[in-house]
Design a protein that fits this description.
The chain is of the alpha/beta class and 282 residues long. 52% of the residues lie in helices and 13% in strands. One of its GO terms (molecular function) is GTPase activity.
């Protein structure tokens, strides 16, 4: 049976670990099992312990101390070390067949944009361990709703989509931080964005007016995003009673693209003798 895995991607500080914990909590509440696989060699567990932890193989702190590397260089070294020891990952994954594995990834976006590390891990999980994978890419609402930053966020999400070649769900996290400053109607324009309209709105920015060449650059980038037509977001609010609803919606999308329900083994029907005994008892 195919295994199901979810990659939690996105820049540092967007709430990937909070998202993972929310998914775990929701799945437990509906009777499903899930585990967090930590792929961040600098992370510490928060609400839920890591079932599988890359720090048992190698940690960022040890690499920095022993090799004298900076944070980014040490992170790349850790992942290259993991690639040389994928048998460790195979052993750790073990027999998690009918349970979700949620891979909490680091926040350095170069891993999703141009460093060919995660694609190798993804292909290994798919081809060698028979995983059905889905990538979730998180961006925080205060970052996206600033129109001048929208395009960089959209491009980083698109870059991850192209590099990983996985079913991809974009998530707008920390919705609670913009509820009081942005109307629901305005927020919807960013959940299902029209990049060309946003590019026109950017013309109101003083910086764009002073530098016309940047206006042309924004329009060129907006056209690129529009041609792909794949950048949409699902809202995630982990701060209120709406948490369960938003997490349930996201999980339903993940189940759909990973075909989780179709991968479940059918229950064995009762044989006729058992059914007859049951009817006689009642």
């Amino acid at each position: 049976m195919s295994r199901v895995g979810v990659l939690a991607l996105g820049p540092a500080g967007v709430g990937k670990t909070t998202f993972c914990n929310s998914i775990i909590s929701h799945m437990q509440s509906i009777g499903r099992r899930a585990h967090i696989v930590n792929l961040d060699p600098a992370a510490d567990p928060k609400e839920y312990e890591f079932t599988i932890d890359i720090r048992d193989l190698i940690s960022l702190q040890d690499v920095q101390e022993e090799l004298g590397l900076g944070p980014n260089g040490a992170l790349i070294y850790c992942f290259e070390f993991l690639l040389d020891n994928l048998d460790w990952l195979d052993e750790q994954v073990g027999d998690y067949n009918d349970e979700y594995l949620i891979f909490d990834c680091p926040g350095q976006i170069e891993l999703y944009n141009h460093v060919p590390v995660l694609p190798v891990i993804v292909k290994h999980l798919q081809q060698q361990l028979n995983f059905s994978l889905c990538a979730t890419y998180l961006l925080e609402a205060p970052f996206i709703i600033d129109r001048s930053k929208f395009f960089s966020g959209a491009l980083s999400a698109m870059s991850a989509m192209i590099l990983l070649e996985l079913p991809h769900i974009n998530i707008l996290s920390k919705i609670d931080l913009v509820k009081d400053s942005v109307s629901k109607r305005e927020l919807k324009r960013f959940l299902n964005p029209d990049p060309l309209i946003l590019a026109d709105k950017s013309n109101d920015d003083d910086f764009i007016d002073i530098n016309p060449r940047f206006r042309k650059l924004n329009k060129a980038i907006a056209n690129l995003v529009d041609e792909f037509g794949m950048v949409q977001f699902l809202p995630l609010d982990c701060s209120s009673k709406d948490t369960s609803d938003s997490v349930a919606t996201i999980l339903s999308y993940i189940d759909d693209v990973t075909q989780w329900s179709e991968a479940q083994e059918p229950k064995e029907p009762k044989d006729e003798a058992e059914e007859e005994d049951f009817e006689q008892d009642y």
